[in-house]
Design brief:
The protein has 74 residues and is α+β, with helices and mostly antiparallel strands. The protein contains two helices and three strands, in the order H-E-E-E-H. The protein has one domain (11-66).
Length: 74
């Protein structure tokens, strides 16, 4: 799959998953990016679930995707 000039929403549709896991970040006082936690988002970028552990978010995401016909795992 060629991802040149493809925006993120188009990429999500190509992956056929309605829900996906994304990290939550912030910048500390030294300008470094720090991972604060993880979230599950739907294809419209609504946050469905937040947690500090990636594994928990992946499991929730997989449960949500199981309800969707033909959806991929997170």
């Amino acid at each position: 799959m060629n991802t040149t000039n493809v925006d993120y929403k188009e990429l999500r549709k190509k992956l056929e998953a309605r829900y996906f896991v994304q990290w939550i970040t912030a910048t500390n006082r030294h300008g470094e990016i720090v991972v604060l936690g993880w979230c599950v988002r739907d294809e419209d970028w609504n946050t469905m679930f937040k947690h500090e552990d990636e594994t928990v978010c992946r499991k929730v995401c997989e449960m949500l995707n199981e309800n969707e016909e033909g959806a991929n795992k997170c």
